[in-house]
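Minutes, project check-in
Item: structure for the 88-residue chain
Input as provided by the requester:
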Amino acid sequence: MSIQLINIGFGNIVSANRVIAIVSPESAPIKRIITEAREKGQLIDATYGRRTRAVIITDSCHVVLSAIQPETVANRFIIDKDTHSNVN
């Protein structure tokens, strides 16, 4: 299995193989997930002080905050998979 990396903004990268969901931070359940992750020490803030626009949930229960739109992250995810599958 190859490692695929996704740029989530400002030079921050996550492993595409570990991503479960990319969601907007607006709803109360997502805000609760962020709060619980912060309390457990499983929150990674990659916003560089900017507004959180995407919340990335991983299979290790880590929650990553990004300052770019969820659609942008998802498009990078899809483009990377397409590019990677064409190389093989």
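Outcome recorded: DSSP finds two helices and six strands in the chain.
No further action items on this chain.
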